[in-house]
Amino acid sequence: MTSLPAKTDKKLGLVIDLDTCVGCQACVTNCKEWNTSGHMAPLTDLMAYGAEADGVWFNRVHTYEVAGHEACGASSSRTMHFPRSCLHCEKPDCVTVCPTGASYKRASDGIVLVNEDLCIGCKLCSWACPYGAREFDVFEGVMKKCTLCVDRIYNENLAEEDRVPACVLTCPTSARHFGDLGDPNSDVSKLVKARGGADLMPELGYQPTNKYLPPRARKDTAAAMPAPELKPIATDGLLGWVDRLLSR
Amino acid sequence: MNPALSVIFFTTASGAGYGMLVTLGLAALLGQLPQHLWFSLVTMVVALGLITAGLLSSTFHLGHPERAWRAFSQWRSSWLSREGIMAVATYMPALGFGLAWAFPNLITVPQGIVGVGAALFALGTIYTTAMIYRSLKPIHQWHNKHVVGCYLVLGVMTGAVFVLALSSLFGQRIVYLTPICGLLLAAGLSVKWLYWAFIDSTTASSTPASAVGLSGPNVKVTSVEWPHTEANYVMKEMGFQVARKHATRLRQIAIWAGFLLPAIALETSILLPADLGTWLTIPAALVMAIGIVAERWLFFAQAKHTVTLYYGAGTA
Questions:
Q1: Residue A92 structural domain
Q2: I need a labelling partner for A134 at 20 to 30 A (CA). Which of A158, A221, B103, B112 fits?
Q3: Looking at chain B, which residue has its C-alpha nearest residue A134?
Q4: pLDDT at A1
Q5: Measured between alpha carbons, how far is A27 from B113 in angstroms, rounded to an integer?
Q6: For chain A, how many structural domains are there in total?
């Protein structure tokens, strides 16, 4: 059913720190690794080693130059890496436009999924997503998208600490956080509040669940170094004489 | 947006077919429908043929055409689903009207009543098609008040001119249809002109900065590296770019072939002796068809999706 649930019990999603993301593509790689044999498998690659490599990925990391932001300091710009994936919106038009009921938003945790057995591959959902999160699998003829690793986060065959999305698990700089953004006392909600987490394209009204933490303000001066000044180690005796001789 | 030929053919051909039903249904209501077996049969075959060919063509771009029947299920939320239902539902009054018109002695339903039914269902189908595009918030050139009017007027306009051309072919005459077609061509150019003025003077409210969640009066975000070296699905489907030079030229073709030349031809046909003038309506209809295909190609090619903001577009 492509009508949206009035309310979801949880709002599971990601918080992505644009200050610490180094653009290493590890989240992209581990996402592909897990999901190509997961819920939406396979993430088909076409001509993977050819001149026009193409394929389905749920996560894409862009790199931007940002200027005129407090993160840049007084007069310079800075590099910002930007991972882009499904935001599991509260008002996802990608779900409501689906003519077959293949796309749906779960009432329990708010995750947006595609039932591949119902998908006719009309691609309208990808047009309705402002963020380009959905990618069509031309080989399978169905639409694919991020599942928030629904097959990891509830998976009792995994150790409890591994029950997070693959992208979060692998991030070497801990720039990605996973949790319930509907619970104001969750770690992710507190992080969003403390760092001013923002929605992408809020003007379109999709109310994304995932939040992005803007890069922190950059200081224009380096921190004061507390190390004491170097002093002569000897003023008399043989070493004192050598010091005076060499300082001449 | 990628101007897929299947969708361009679908919206133009089925739009014209539904427009023919609107024209014929209203003519029947006003008692102006010529009772001529071959005219009625050929006209209905052309109208339903355009509709059916368009609908079939729109299923060609599906990844799983064999599952297309599932698209009738989500009418509560999806305009595409509503369109599918309307398109199929229209066949019933349309076939009923066609039979009542072609074989009035066998089927004694009042032509005016079924005709209006077919016309209303046809208008409803064009409306649902337009709403598919109108409802897509990420595409500024579609998500605006001009789109529905353009689809409705251009659908009825192309249909009326096709009916006029077919009536000439069979030596039939529907009173006032030529001046009505002239008015529809003027109305079509007007709504399209307003649409073009709108998309030329406005851009999406989303910006490269809002796309990455940054706000501030002076924030400038510039793409320096893409996540992939080759074009991916998102770029191929939604990152289509039409050269400004071609867009200007195609718009001229759409204006002249789609509206001005057919209007001039119809004006001339009124002034010429009747048997000579009526033949002018046939080239008028064919030229108009070319112009409207150019118009529809531009409707897709000039639509900019917000996802292009992630790939270096300054505006969408």
A1: 12-213
A2: A158
A3: B234
A4: 64
A5: 63
A6: 1
For residue A225, tell me if it sits in a domain. Answer: no
Q: Which residues of B touch A120 (CB under 8 A)?
A: 62-65, 67-68, 70-71
**What residue spans define the domains of chain B?**
5-311
Instruction: Give chain B positions within 8 Å (CB) of A67.
Output: 218-220, 222
Would residue A222 count as lying in a domain? no
Residues A37-92 pLDDT 10s: 999 999 999 998 988 999 999 999 999 999 999 888 766 899 999 999 999 999 99
**Any B CB within 8 A of A79 CB:** yes
Average pLDDT over residues A172-184: 98
Q: What is the mean pLDDT of residues A173-197?
A: 98
Of all residues in chain B, the one with the smallest CA distance to A215 is: B214
Cβ pair A136:B65 closer than 8 A: no
pTM of the model: 0.93
Min CA distance, B2 vs chain A (Å)?
A: 11
Q: What is the pLDDT of residue A75?
A: 66
Structure tokens at A3: 């009508």
Q: Which residue has the higher pLDDT, A227 or A61?
A: A61
**CATH for A64:** 3.30.70.20
